[in-house]
Amino acid sequence: MKKKESREKAVALRYREHEDRAPRVVAKGEGHVAQRILETARQNNIPVYQDHDLLELLAQVDIDREIPSELYTAVAEILSWIYRANSEMRATHL
Length: 94
Hints:
By secondary structure, this protein is of the alpha+beta class.
């Protein structure tokens, strides 16, 4: 039996505090598309958070849709992590 090859996956979220009610899925994909999403994030100094289980859940959300309320807590933890990472990055670049 041949082992199924694991393909890289990525989901990009956007949250604008005064515009969005909840984070939105703005891009998602596997393989080459996932690589482009990650490359774009790195080029724009956007922190990348890795959580396979959450990725699988977010990948089920349609593009340009808000995440379901069941994922608010998990995504809030990610946003907190990103805010801390951004603050640390700014502090080291001063």
